[in-house]
């Protein structure tokens, strides 16, 4: 059996299984807030939680942490569901923190009755200054000793919208001198007279994250609640809240923390990505430059490449920055195995084969993917007039130029050996055509002695009368620096790369006419491309997923 070392999260679970947990107790959740589209950072959390689910055959809930009606929308819920599915995972139950609003409210009433919560009627500024500092204890609110009866009456009025939005909050009564600042009477509820995407106008009070999250885990019998490191100081409060509502013998969820993953030359924060969309710096949440799951999907990433990426960077205890080149490596690696090879020319130079009969065409056989025998073969048309890339021809060049030059030979991929005989130029000296001859005995795969002849250099090409003109969208880093948020004196938007999108055209072989949205190809010698959803019947649009090699320099 394969012995793979366990990451520290798996070690925690293995330890628990040795002591007080059964495998059948295990249950996990992925808890996004529906305030934006999921990004590559979320992919780490999704792969962690659903990966554990698969490993232990344990259920994993998809829980929408929808406690803030100001920023949450149904479109985000839908996109999150579609992204998790596309990544290849299945949730046990679709849950919403908002489904627990009544239960949370009832529990809050119990806390008030037990003397564990009170209504504070100070301004948020006063509450903040009374919090103290890590070395100085806080100051008790003058409302801390409010009677249970008055608290209950006020809280109900708050719930019904009978009080002004900013007039009151509900706070847990814990310890204003706690060394953990988060334990100094944290907020449980605030008033918001705002419609919620699921509960409409039912509620005028909304629970805070700390109150809602652990209780939601408890309601769903989640055994292990994994979150990112910034919640470490919240763990004490998480436990305190669950302790208030649980009975002996019930499964108590355990919060454990892992490090957030960051990706270079981009931002992994829904809030910041939302700014890029709102300010039209990108066209949409699924713009192929975005580090969102849907953007990567549209760019041509496969679910496997993203899962492999998450797996390879692993789960850590310390926050770090992953070079986006590593993500690109993962997709290149996957597409190399999967993507059919096709020929397309982006920067065309006309070649005329002068000894090839006018009006003749022939269909040559070529393999679809040399990395995958099962991919089969297809036919490509050859004729007297072809395009090759401008950069593949020079009138004169040194011995290291293994492409076409005057008087020398190259092989055209899956076709013939041709020799450049002369160039035709316009009055400015720009090369308009290269006139070549071909050797009819050198047809690839024909088995003749001449076809085995070795020439340095094989070029891709397309037959002009058969070629299809398509749009190509070439992408560069969205930000010109590794960490756009590193400089605290500057706005991350100052570092947006103004040239992250370049639109061009290409001439491609006719087999691509039937390509469908999201189909992926390797344009030989150029890169991997994916059919964009903005393609029309008349014009295909291709997104370049990634170049063949890592050619990008800082
Ligand atoms: P954002 O600031 O982008 O909204 P978030 O943590 O507030 O991030 P949530 O929707 O609350 O976003 O996240 C759902 C889950 O994904 C949480 O458990 C969160 O900790 C995890 N997560 C979010 N971003 C990352 C990241 N960059 N790396 C790893 N896990 C992440
Ligand atoms: Mg957030
Ligand atoms: Mg969050």
UniProtKB/TrEMBL annotation:
<dbReference type="GO" id="GO:0004819">
    <property type="term" value="F:glutamine-tRNA ligase activity"/>
</dbReference>
<keyword id="KW-0963">Cytoplasm</keyword>
<feature type="domain" description="tRNA synthetases class I (E and Q) anti-codon binding">
    <location>
        <begin position="458"/>
        <end position="532"/>
    </location>
</feature>
<dbReference type="GO" id="GO:0005524">
    <property type="term" value="F:ATP binding"/>
</dbReference>
<dbReference type="InterPro" id="IPR020059">
    <property type="entry name" value="Glu/Gln-tRNA-synth_Ib_codon-bd"/>
</dbReference>
<keyword id="KW-0547">Nucleotide-binding</keyword>
<dbReference type="Pfam" id="PF03950">
    <property type="entry name" value="tRNA-synt_1c_C"/>
</dbReference>
<feature type="domain" description="Glutamyl/glutaminyl-tRNA synthetase class Ib catalytic">
    <location>
        <begin position="27"/>
        <end position="336"/>
    </location>
</feature>
<feature type="domain" description="Glutamyl/glutaminyl-tRNA synthetase class Ib anti-codon binding">
    <location>
        <begin position="339"/>
        <end position="439"/>
    </location>
</feature>
<protein>
    <recommendedName>
        <fullName>Glutamine--tRNA ligase</fullName>
        <ecNumber>6.1.1.18</ecNumber>
    </recommendedName>
</protein>
<keyword id="KW-0648">Protein biosynthesis</keyword>
<dbReference type="InterPro" id="IPR020058">
    <property type="entry name" value="Glu/Gln-tRNA-synth_Ib_cat-dom"/>
</dbReference>
<dbReference type="GO" id="GO:0005829">
    <property type="term" value="C:cytosol"/>
</dbReference>
<keyword id="KW-0436">Ligase</keyword>
<dbReference type="InterPro" id="IPR001412">
    <property type="entry name" value="aa-tRNA-synth_I_CS"/>
</dbReference>
<comment type="similarity">
    <text>Belongs to the class-I aminoacyl-tRNA synthetase family.</text>
</comment>
<feature type="region of interest" description="Disordered">
    <location>
        <begin position="124"/>
        <end position="144"/>
    </location>
</feature>
<dbReference type="Pfam" id="PF20974">
    <property type="entry name" value="tRNA-synt_1c_C2"/>
</dbReference>
<dbReference type="InterPro" id="IPR014729">
    <property type="entry name" value="Rossmann-like_a/b/a_fold"/>
</dbReference>
<dbReference type="InterPro" id="IPR020061">
    <property type="entry name" value="Glu_tRNA_lig_a-bdl"/>
</dbReference>
<dbReference type="Pfam" id="PF00749">
    <property type="entry name" value="tRNA-synt_1c"/>
</dbReference>
<dbReference type="InterPro" id="IPR049437">
    <property type="entry name" value="tRNA-synt_1c_C2"/>
</dbReference>
<dbReference type="InterPro" id="IPR020056">
    <property type="entry name" value="Rbsml_bL25/Gln-tRNA_synth_N"/>
</dbReference>
<dbReference type="InterPro" id="IPR050132">
    <property type="entry name" value="Gln/Glu-tRNA_Ligase"/>
</dbReference>
<keyword id="KW-0030">Aminoacyl-tRNA synthetase</keyword>
<dbReference type="InterPro" id="IPR000924">
    <property type="entry name" value="Glu/Gln-tRNA-synth"/>
</dbReference>
<keyword id="KW-0067">ATP-binding</keyword>
<dbReference type="GO" id="GO:0006425">
    <property type="term" value="P:glutaminyl-tRNA aminoacylation"/>
</dbReference>
<dbReference type="InterPro" id="IPR011035">
    <property type="entry name" value="Ribosomal_bL25/Gln-tRNA_synth"/>
</dbReference>
<dbReference type="InterPro" id="IPR004514">
    <property type="entry name" value="Gln-tRNA-synth"/>
</dbReference>
């Amino acid at each position: 059996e394969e012995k793979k070392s366990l990451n520290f999260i798996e070690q925690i679970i293995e330890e628990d299984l040795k002591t007080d947990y059964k495998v059948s107790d295990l249950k996990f959740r992925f808890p996004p807030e529906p305030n934006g589209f999921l990004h590559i950072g979320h992919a780490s959390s999704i792969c962690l939680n659903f990966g554990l689910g698969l490993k232990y055959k344990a259920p994993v809930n998809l829980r929408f942490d929808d406690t803030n009606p100001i920023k949450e929308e149904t479109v985000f819920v839908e996109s999150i569901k579609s992204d998790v599915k596309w990544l290849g995972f299945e949730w046990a139950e679709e849950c919403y923190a908002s489904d627990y609003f009544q239960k949370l409210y009832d529990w809050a009433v119990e806390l008030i009755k037990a003397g564990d919560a009170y209504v504070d009627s100070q301004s948020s500024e006063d509450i903040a200054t009374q919090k103290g500092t890590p070395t100085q204890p806080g100051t008790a609110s003058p409302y801390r000793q409010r009677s249970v009866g008055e608290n209950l009456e006020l809280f109900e009025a708050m719930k019904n919208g009978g009080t002004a939005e900013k007039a009151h909050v509900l706070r847990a009564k814990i310890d204003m001198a706690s060394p953990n600042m988060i334990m100094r009477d944290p907020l449980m509820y605030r008033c918001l007279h705002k419609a919620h995407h699921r509960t409409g106008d039912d509620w005028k009070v909304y629970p805070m994250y700390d109150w809602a999250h652990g209780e939601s885990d408890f309601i769903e019998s989640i055994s292990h609640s994994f979150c990112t490191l910034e919640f470490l100081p919240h763990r004490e409060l998480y436990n305190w809240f669950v302790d208030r509502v649980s009975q002996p013998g019930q499964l108590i969820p355990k919060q454990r923390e892992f490090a957030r993953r960051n990706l270079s030359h981009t931002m992994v924060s829904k809030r910041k990505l939302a700014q890029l969309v709102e300010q039209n710096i990108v066209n949409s949440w699924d713009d192929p430059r975005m580090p969102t799951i849907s953007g990567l999907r549209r760019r041509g990433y496969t679910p496997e490449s993203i899962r492999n990426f998450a797996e390879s960077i692993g789960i850590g205890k310390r926050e770090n920055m992953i070079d986006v080149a590593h993500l690109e490596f993962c997709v290149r690696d996957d597409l190399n195995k999967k993507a059919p090879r096709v020929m397309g020319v982006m920067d065309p130079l006309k070649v005329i084969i002068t000894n090839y009969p006018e009006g003749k065409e022939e269909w040559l056989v070529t393999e679809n993917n040399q990395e995958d025998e099962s991919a089969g073969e297809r036919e490509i048309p050859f004729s007297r007039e072809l395009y090759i890339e401008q950069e593949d021809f020079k009138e004169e060049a040194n011995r290291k130029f293994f492409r076409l030059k005057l008087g020398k030979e190259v092989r055209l991929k899956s076709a013939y050996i041709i020799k450049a005989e002369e160039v035709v130029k316009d009055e400015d000296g720009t090369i308009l055509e290269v006139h070549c001859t071909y050797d009819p005995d050198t047809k690839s795969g024909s088995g003749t002695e001449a076809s085995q002849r070795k020439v340095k250099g094989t070029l891709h090409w397309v037959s002009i009368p058969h070629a299809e003109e398509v749009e190509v969208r070439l992408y560069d880093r969205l930000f010109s620096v590794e960490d756009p948020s590193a400089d605290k004196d500057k706005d991350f938007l100052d570092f947006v790369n103004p040239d992250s999108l370049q639109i061009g055209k290409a001439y491609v072989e006719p087999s691509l006419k039937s390509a469908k949205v999201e189909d992926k190809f390797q344009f030989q010698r150029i890169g991997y491309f994916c059919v964009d959803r903005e393609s029309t019947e008349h014009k295909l649009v291709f997104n370049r997923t990634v170049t063949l090699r890592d050619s990008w320099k800082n």
